[in-house]
Design brief:
The complex is a heterodimer of chains A (163) and B (578). Chain A is α+β, with helices and mostly antiparallel strands and 163 residues long. Chain A is built from four helices and nine strands; from the N terminus they run βαββαββαββαββ. Helices cover 28% and strands 40% of the residues of chain A. Chain B is globular, with a radius of gyration of 25 Å. The chains are: A alpha+beta (163), B alpha/beta (578). At the A-B interface, α1 and α2 of A face β6 of B.
Chain lengths: 163, 578
């Protein structure tokens, strides 16, 4: 099952390598990973998605918690949550394709953020499923380059992850 | 406030932390630090012959005293040589602080001379590590390192210090913090009351219980609580390889070690039990055999300081996270009235359980099978002779292999911290330097290293260190001329094809040790065994190496049958299985 784990950790050199190393060392998988400092510059927030069963995700969260630099974490997928991913996609857009690509992008509420005579670069935000669906809706031959941020997320409602 | 250089701050911090011994080896990146070591006399530095031995010495020191072992090595090869010892300590949860020199800050990342990314290389085998960025951080980093190494589930901590930070010309205000708090690190200080009550309920109604206690009891200094609890309950108890000595090995309630080379009675009791109370143990694969067949009738209570140990391989019905000593104290209080009011039915069931266990015990699985007409010494008899000559009271370290298992089986330990071996990592070459660490900590105690001709050669250079510091260790070389455990597996699983398990061209160990100024004995016949062993043990001020020629064909039994076996599936002797 796909899990989204959100980790609050000390914003120190080497902390990220411990998280990544843990996953490699214990044979866990990382699907996506995104990390940046928070409003409190001493803390970083890292969000990762992984494919794991109940028992494995329990071990993953416990092992992450054991890392000295990890302050707190939550498995967002355990409760109601909001998740978003950002994708930038560069497309071949010439001739009749140009209008078609724009129309598909509009349907997915994508924004064209760069234009040349032969390309569009589109920015799209949404769940992983939505971004996947957009990619499927495009003619494969038009896709030149894709970059995705990986999943970020928060719990719904009052629930927060803070120190 | 006192002004000190980074190097002096480091040494002062170690002194303020109460460190009395540092095990190490100098080199370019730690020269400023070694100069600071030279200019003081509160900490004794022990100069080894190889950095791996420094870590094992610190490890032996830590295991025997309960205090953290301290290692000082240089950058690059000094640091990488320490890795095996750090991994050994990590696997067995031993408190250790390893200070490694690093190249100057401005050279980091340039592949400079003797540069290794020590924090990176050691990352998977440390509890935590620090790369110190500024000299003024040194005292607080040292405080943190010792706090992390010794609290919660103990483990090794690496502190990597670039050479420029220890420059004697740069002085800083020195003060050593009394305490340190870290918002991201707070090990459990007591168990969850609700979980403890659930455990009490199970313990009060079970009919075929076993207490299964591991190294966590030794490391957590909870041996007295374990003994009190086990006596109060009247339950059978087994120890893991790491837990030996946590409960008296000669006590009637003790079933011996369990697992791969555990006793018939311990493994059977585990398999047939209806309640397993695991204390400071981690359900290692050398314990469980096939996990799906492990203790099929038992509910499991698991007490451990480390939440990741719980339900990692075997699901715990009642998990309790907390320090073993305080949780057991609390449980003993709650159990006293329960035991007083035990029903007749439960008393009867426990009686029948003990009768069943006594039946298994009658198998006498550790009886040494031998042909009385032959003069050849069995390796088990060598260990028994050590037991006799030391009255069962020595500190015993071992290396890894058959002799290690024989030591665990035939030298029952009545006290914790007396049995010192590399259980988790299984590091050959551990025994001698570990014994040296113990002897440094306890100069007047009898320290014995039970080893084999394979393992001893992995750190034999330390015989020189023993000469330098006058460490009167007794080395018992159980010499079967081959890598015994490898050979045993090849006999059992590879139709006797002994691929590279034969030790050709062994040295004359007696001459070898004599060249270092030690005493050597060689024993080749049974009638020499006890008298020569007694003579060796009586030499108090010298290292004595006893080279014992033993039966090269002997196997360690019992031995769990794998793959797909349960705990009751064992080889009992050659060709005889359950």
């Amino acid at each position: 099952m796909r899990r989204i784990i959100s980790v609050l950790m000390e914003n120190e050199p080497g902390a990220l390598s411990r998280v990544i190393g843990l996953f490699a060392q214990r044979n866990y998988n990382i699907e996506t990973l995104t990390v940046a400092p928070t409003e409190d510059s001493t803390l970083s927030r890292l969000t990762l998605s992984t494919l794991a069963g109940d028992e494995q995700v329990e071990q993953i969260t416990k092992q992450l918690n054991k890392l000295i630099e990890v302050v707190k974490l939550v498995d967002l997928t355990e409760g109601e949550h909001i998740e978003r991913e950002l994708m930038l996609i560069k497309l071949k857009a010439t001739g009749a394709q140009r209008a078609e690509v724009k129309r598909t992008s509009d349907i997915f509420r994508g924004q064209v953020i760069d234009v040349t005579q032969s390309t569009y670069t589109i920015q799209l935000t949404g769940t992983t499923e939505k971004l996947d669906a957009f990619l499927r809706a495009l003619p494969e031959s038009s896709v030149m380059e894709v970059v995705r941020s990986g999943v970020s997320g928060l719990s719904r409602g009052e629930k927060v992850l803070t120190t | 406030m006192e002004k000190l250089s980074g190097a002096d701050m480091l040494i002062r911090a170690l002194q303020d932390e109460g460190v009395d011994h540092v095990f190490g080896y100098p080199g370019g990146a730690v020269l400023h630090i070694y100069d600071a070591v030279f200019r003081q006399n509160r900490i004794q530095h022990v100069l080894v012959r190889h950095e791996q031995a420094a870590t094992h010495m610190a490890d032996g020191y830590a295991r025997s005293t309960g205090r953290p072992g301290v290692v000082l090595v240089t950058s690059g090869p000094g640091a990488t040589n320490a890795i095996t010892g750090i991994a050994t300590a990590y696997m067995d949860s031993i408190p250790m602080v390893v200070i490694s020199g690093q190249v100057q800050s401005h050279l980091i990342g340039t592949d400079s001379f003797q540069e290794t990314d020590m924090v990176g290389v050691s990352r998977p085998i440390v509890k935590h590590s620090f790369l110190v960025r500024t000299a003024s951080e040194i005292p607080e980093t040292i405080k943190k390192a010792f706090y992390i190494a010794t609290s919660g589930r103990p483990g090794p901590v690496v502190v990597d210090i670039p050479k420029d930070l220890t420059d004697p010309t740069n002085l800083f205000d020195y003060s050593y913090p009394e305490t340190v708090t870290m918002r991201s690190y707070s090990p459990a200080t007591r168990g969850h009351t609700g979980q403890i009550k659930k455990a009490i309920k199970l313990l009060a109604k079970c009919e075929r219980p076993v207490i299964y206690a591991g190294g966590g009891v030794v490391q957590g200094d909870a041996s007295s609580q374990l003994i009190e609890l086990t006596r109060l309950l009247g339950f059978p108890i087994t120890n893991t390889l790491m837990g030996l000595g946590a409960f008296p090995g000669t006590d009637r309630q003790f079933l011996g070690m369990l697992g791969m080379h555990g006793t018939f009675e311990a493994n059977n009791a585990m398999h047939h039990s209806d309640l397993v109370f695991a204390i400071g143990a981690r359900f290692d694969d050398r314990i469980t055999n096939t996990v799906s067949k492990f203790c099929p009738y038992a509910e499991i209570i698991h007490l451990d300081i480390d939440p990741t140990s719980i339900s990692k391989t075997v699901n715990a019905d009642v998990p309790i996270v907390g320090p073993v000593d305080t949780v057991l104290d609390e449980m003993i209080k709650l159990l006293e009235p329960e035991v007083a009011e035990r029903s007749e039915k439960q008393q009867q069931m426990l009686k029948e359980w003990w009768e069943q266990i006594e039946g298994w015990r009658k198998q006498d699985c550790l009886a040494v099978i031998r042909d009385e007409s032959e003069d050849i010494i069995k390796p088990q008899e060598a260990v028994q002779a050590v037991y006799k000559a030391t009255d069962g009271k020595a500190y015993v370290t071992s290396d890894v292999g058959q002799h290690q298992m024989f030591a665990a089986q035939y030298y029952p330990f009545d006290e914790p911290r007396k049995w010192i071996n590399s259980g988790g990592l299984g590091t050959m070459g551990f025994g001698l330097p570990a014994a040296m660490g113990v002897q440094v900590a306890f100069p007047d105690e009898q320290v014995v290293c039970i080893t084999g001709e394979g393992s001893i050669q992995m750190n034999i250079q330390e015989l020189s260190t023993c000469s330098q510091y006058g460490l009167p260790i007794k080395i018992i070389n159980v010499n079967n001329g081959s890598l015994g455990m490898v050979k045993q597996w090849q006999d059992m699983q590879y139709e006797g094809r002994h691929s590279h398990s034969y030790m050709d061209s062994l040295p004359d160990f007696v001459k070898l040790v004599e060249s270092y100024g030690h005493v050597g004995f060689k024993i080749e016949s049974r009638d020499e065994l006890e008298p020569v062993m007694a003579e060796a043990m009586a030499i108090k001020n010298k290292l004595v190496f006893v080279d014992i020629m033993v039966d090269p064909s002997e196997h360690v039994y019992p031995m769990l049958i794998a793959p797909n076996g349960s705990l009751r599936d064992m080889w009992l002797s050659k060709g005889v299985r359950t």
